[in-house]
């Protein structure tokens, strides 16, 4: 028969508590490491609030791919209509689509930035960036923001002091 004295019992109890603590600690560290570090995410998204008619403005969509992921595409939309696509495995990698009010400086646009040139009133709208990773996951992330163009026709709305 095994007898357990008080000292051994407390040692066993302490060992058991630490074992359970470290098990759950390890489990949560591993679990949460998969949530943000190892998946596609948009890290910086920038759409100007406003611009004057005729100006050029840059839209930015910086992303981070998870480990073992490669970029499938990055797309830009205005009011739900695709106007720019970047697919690194295609030739050419950039594609521009006709959308009312959207003119792009293709030479200044990249996999993370799109430059709108000579904006006009019809350039105003809701702009969305969508990024997708390759198979097998095809993870997708997107962000959107409003962009407004202020023109000379709105000058009468300004108050004089």
TrEMBL record:
Keywords: Membrane, Transmembrane, Transmembrane helix. The keyword Ribonucleoprotein does not apply. Pfam families: V-set. Residues 54-148 form the Ig-like domain. It comes from the Eukaryota. The chain crosses the membrane at residues 12-35. The keyword Lipid biosynthesis does not apply. InterPro entries: Ig-like_dom, Ig-like_dom_sf, Ig-like_fold, Ig_V-set. PANTHER family: BEAT PROTEIN, BEATEN PATH VA, ISOFORM A-RELATED. This is Ig-like domain-containing protein. It comes from Daphnia pulex (Water flea).
